[in-house]
Amino acid sequence: MKDIQLLTTHEQLKTLSDPFRSQVLLRLMEKPMTGQQLSEVFDLSRARIHYHLKELEKNNLVQIVKREEKNGIIQKFYQSVALGFVADRDLLPHPEEMSESVRQMMINMLERSQKRVLSASEEALHDEIGSQDPSEWKYLSGAFEFKATEDDFKAWLKKYFALMEELSEIQKQNPTQDAKLYYFHSLGIQVDEPLFDRQKPEEEES
């Protein structure tokens, strides 16, 4: 599975713009699954699941990664071809489909993240230190809003991904017994209206 796959056709954008297909694709980013397994997850008929899988496969968004025989039936395991998708510049004449495909993927990722938080253990969320210093917390949780130029944002984004790669490589190079599994989901988008209205207390203003 690639880290990033380039979307090169209008049909790929339309496929990702479908809310249900983007949900299926997100599941298949996590692990390979069969049509039967997906039908149980979404409580839908195998015929309907296979229809959507064929559309995703036809547009090179998922692929069969293995086959297993069970009770004389060959089971096909599908997986997303990448962990993320980026639209090619040639697709810019279709901004609505491009925006909608990104929007649907973000919405579904938020839903998956919500489920991960709800299923997190008490240990993962219990902060024994009670510190106001975020560097001492056992988890990452925050919302930020500030102004930046597009160039500044892109430069920071490059550093951010480099930092995430640095963290992921530590255990790959020097594995230890006390390592824990962490789940990250980040979201940063341009918005039109501010969400936060932070005002100083009256005593500070005077």
Automatic annotation (TrEMBL):
It comes from Halobacillus amylolyticus. CDD domains: HTH_ARSR (cd00090). Residues 11-91 form the HTH arsR-type domain. InterPro entries: ArsR-like_HTH, HTH_ArsR_DNA-bd_dom, WH-like_DNA-bd_sf, WH_DNA-bd_sf. It holds the Pfam family HTH_5. It comes from the Bacteria. The keyword tRNA processing does not apply. Keywords: DNA-binding. The keyword Transmembrane does not apply. This is Winged helix-turn-helix domain-containing protein.
